[in-house]
Amino acid sequence: MRAMAFRFATGISTAESPLRAAEEAAGIAAGAIPDAKTDLAFLFVSPSHAASIGKIAARVRARLEPATLLGCTANGVIADGREIEEGPAVAVWAAAMPGVTVRGFAARVRGEGEEAHVEGFPEFVPDEKESPALLLVVDPFSFPADGFLRALADRCPTLPVLGGMASGAGAPGQNRLLLDEEILEDGAIGALLAGPIEVRTVVSQGCRPIGRPLVVTKGEGNLVQELGGKPALERVKEVLDSLGEKERRLARNALHVGLVIDEYRSAFERGDFLVRNLVGLDPKSGALVIGDRVRRGQTIQFHVRDAASADEDLRALLEREAKGREASPPAGALLFTCNGRGTNLFAAPDHDASMVRRIAGAIPLAGFFAAGEIGPIGAKNFLHGYTASLALFYDRARGRG
Predict the structure, then answer these.
(1) Under a CB-based contact definition with an 8 Å cutoff, are residues 145 and 383 in contact?
(2) Which of 146, 189, 317, 374 shows its CA 20 to 30 Å from the CA of 241?
């Protein structure tokens, strides 16, 4: 007997009453999958409803009866192709995934300094027949996402991690994270997925490369001293001189550095670079200071970021993902996009959400505006900024994908 197909659903409400918003959003999602068992649900709540997140979650559990419910506060929520950046809002995402194991967890940091360690992350051994993935939402004030991702890479080097940092709070203790009936003010919550599922990732860093790839011939820590045997600042001037006036103005105001992840490739394209900020420069030594560590022999390429670049990058990556998958499109998606995107970057609202649905199809999509986004570049997971990190869910039992 053929297994039942995956089913996903979303709902969103901008009602001023927290309970009414919860009822409306959960009701819309429940109505889309009335006869399906909800294995995993996400709840995203605007800051104005944060004080009522426990009551909101109770309404969502009553309507959807999810085996695992995760959630967080966010200064903007996403669902049904809409991005609600201001005002009260509740977004719900529900997934019925027969045969998939969902292991929800809450993790916290215990101890300090060298004694610090993460408690609560489940022990697991990936089965080579499965395609496990980790969905992760963290509090930026209390959970070291960068360090956690590095430690996880040593333990589970092939595990893709998608998620974001809870947003909408200006001080420690103001964010709210949710795991089933538990409400947390710190730490991280997430879910490990395994089974007949493939979670594909699209991580758009909103940049495009300029100039040509260059090799770091001298550098240490976050200091790039020489590129291709010349002072790094001299190379920057060469790149600027090669640009037209419009692009030169853009580069002077929004220049970034892309670090190649896989040095064994013969050519580099979108998705091959980890984009980091150009923090500063030293005119005397000609060195550059960037927002990450570099090593001698590493390849870098300068990048620029603006609305046009961000639009172009997301579009190109989505089209690449969609190519050849028309016969088995994704069943659902989660979107973690930077709170510096939206109408802070683009002229029109709903940019990222509407583009995903336009290219990937009108699939159930939800998410939130994050204070930092998590997603893989190449085979490594990183914490990003100004990025749209997308998880696409494919039913492996339904064919390719």
Answers:
(1) yes
(2) 317
